[in-house]
Design goal:
single chain, mainly alpha
């Protein structure tokens, strides 16, 4: 047989043909598995997913939050927050219940991390209050962009 008369199948190795047979078997199995019920369920899930995506993308507040969360400093904050939640949950679970009282409160207040946490929450509260007041004054437009 000359090169002019060869078909693509003539030039394929046995391994290539086995691979094609496996792919054909996979496609056949997938086609057999696609019953009307599965197709209906899949289309329902896709429809609900698109509806949810549409509602999420129309939410201006969520879109602004996603833009802020895309900043490197916000991502660092989220990483620190997730690590803090993990470590704190382990510490609280392993520690005996607090006895309470003023002495216990003073011991916690002396911890440098306590002051940093209070400063962070105070700053967050201050900026959130300012933003809410500005939104109210300007017809619910965000103060920070």
């Amino acid at each position: 047989m000359t090169a002019e008369n060869e078909t693509p199948l003539d030039t394929m190795s046995t391994d290539d043909l086995k691979g094609l047979i496996e792919i054909a078997n996979l496609v056949g199995a997938a086609r057999d598995a696609m019953s009307d019920e599965i197709v209906t369920r899949m289309s329902g899930v896709m429809s609900e997913g698109l509806h949810l995506l549409d509602r999420l993308t129309r939410n201006e507040g969520l879109m602004q939050l996603l833009q802020v969360l895309d900043r490197p400093d916000s991502q660092n904050l989220l990483i620190a927050l997730s690590e803090a939640i993990h470590v704190s949950s382990q510490e609280i679970a392993a520690a005996p219940p607090a006895k309470g009282g003023i002495t216990c409160l003073l011991r916690v207040a002396r911890d440098p991390g306590t002051l940093e946490g209070i400063r962070f929450l105070a700053s967050l509260g201050q900026h959130m209050s300012h933003s809410l007041r500005e939104q109210h004054r300007h017809g619910c437009e965000p103060a920070y962009k």
